[in-house]
Amino acid sequence: PRSTLFPYTTLFRSLNMYEKNVTEEGKRIMGGQLKKLFAPVDMTEGRPWEKIVAFTVPLVIGNIAQQLYNTVDSIIVGRYVGDNALAAVGSAGPILNLLLVLFIGISVGSSVMVSQYFGAKEREELSGTIGSCITLTAISSVIIMALAPFVIMPMLELLHTPDTIIDWCNSYLRILFIGIAGVAYYNILSGILRGLGDSVSALIYLLVATVLNIILDLWFVAGLGLGVPGVALATAIAQAVSAVLCMWKLTRMKDVFDFRLHYLKMKKNHAVNIIRLGLPSGLTQAIFSMAMVIVQSLTNSFGEMLIAANVIVMRVDGFAMMPNFSFGTTMTTYAGQNVGANSYDRVEQGARQGTMIAAGTSAVITVLILLFGRNLMGIFTGTSELVDLSMRMMCILAVGYIAMAVTQSLSGVMRGAGDTMTPMWISIITTVLIRVPLAYGISWATRTPELPNGRSECIFISLLVSWVLGAIVTWFFYRRGKWKTKALAAAEK
């Protein structure tokens, strides 16, 4: 009878209503969590080490994806074209980095300003800074695009690039610089997102671009047989996609800053501050790249086998360095926001905790490299002699990653506070005055009739020494504390 079923139908209706409410509540909570995940992070509150780790993890994943750009390029050309093509991609690296220094400067300057204004809650200045960065990047892209074709081949010849790979190097670089705007805007806009405390969005967009890059690499090189130029074309397209996604994200962050047309008109004070803060980092990278160019010339003198080994070591080195660079970027954002909020005790507390975590992470990586490095080298080439040579050089560098953890973390703190000059001078001293002369000095001192150019280990021993001395000098200047007087946001209040 219907009256008998009434309690059960009521129960079923109640259960259905409960399930519907729970489902809607679950969706609401999940949506809120996702929104929080992609929202800017205020690093002026909460436990420092938790904020640092939470911010660094997406950066590490993102840097892995970024490194995959170069690594996949190397693996595909090494496997499908040959060891000479692998050497060509590697030899082009120092020149590429040298011509990208302008964008590195803009990225660092914008990240410092954005993090400080975000921490100080200065919406108008934050909006003007972001708009100026976008315009300045457009101008810089045009300049580099026009300049690059005239300097690429002369620089390759200056480096004594072997005739067997010089044409490949030239075509690789020309294609990348035609698409320079995509590379530039991704680096600048992702730097802005990180300055706002959003490391997750930049990660997602980079992962999308990385997958696209791998697909295009396989299609252009293995499928269409385009060789080294195909690798460059795939990278340029993938970077452009990631830049468009970053721009789309910024246009949707209206609750944080104003993205309007009139902010794209550069204000003198914003442009000056971006250049003032970013120029030292850009010069640092320029000097570092010049040193790499000079050392690359020495590397080239040892022949194609060492050139290829150097490429393999640098690819593994790129992964080993990722946590260090990630912690350095995190500490820049962390210090910038807390300096903007005038919380210097919190900056120092975070610096201690962040540096310890970074050094511990690098120690684990060092052990893994020593244990499994040979397997990593074997991914790039099937030539056993090349694998043995690469592993021998990698063992020289391994311990230096712990020293670089200290350098990157404390340099990040100083940059975030607005002191970009001190890290610059430290890099100049350790790279120009120590690494380059030491590399050539060891090479000269170890010459024999059998080894007319000396021992090839000189390249990696000199790098290790510069890393260790850099960590010592960076720690000394951090302890002096002059970086505390460089805050941009505090000075304008």
Helix content: over 70%
Specify the biggest β-sheet: none
Percentage beta strand: under 5%
- Please give the alpha-carbon distance between the first and last residues: 79 Å
**What is the 3D shape?**
globular
Query: SSE string, helix = H, strand = E?
Result: HHHHHHHHHHHHHHHHH
Output the number of helix runs. Answer: 17
Structural class: mainly alpha
Low-confidence stretches are 1-6, 29-34, 489-493
Q: Report the average pLDDT across residues.
A: 81
> Radius of gyration, rounded?
25 Å
Number of strands: 0
In short:
The chain is mostly helical.
Topology:
Blueprint lengths: L1 H36 L10 H33 L2 H17 L1 H20 L2 H36 L7 H13 L1 H16 L3 H25 L4 H24 L16 H34 L2 H37 L3 H37 L3 H14 L2 H17 L4 H25 L12 H23 L7 H5 L1
Tell me what you see in this structure:
It is built from 17 helices and no strands. Helices cover 84% and strands 0% of the residues. Helix 2 (48-80) crosses helix 3, helix 2 packs antiparallel against helix 9 (228-251) and helix 15 packs antiparallel against helix 16. The longest helix is centred in the middle third of the chain and has 37 residues, at 304-340. It has 493 residues and is an all-alpha fold. It has helices at 2-37, 48-80, 83-99, 101-120, 123-158, 166-178, 180-195, 199-223, 228-251, 268-301, 304-340, 344-380, 384-397, 400-416, 421-445, 458-480, 488-492.
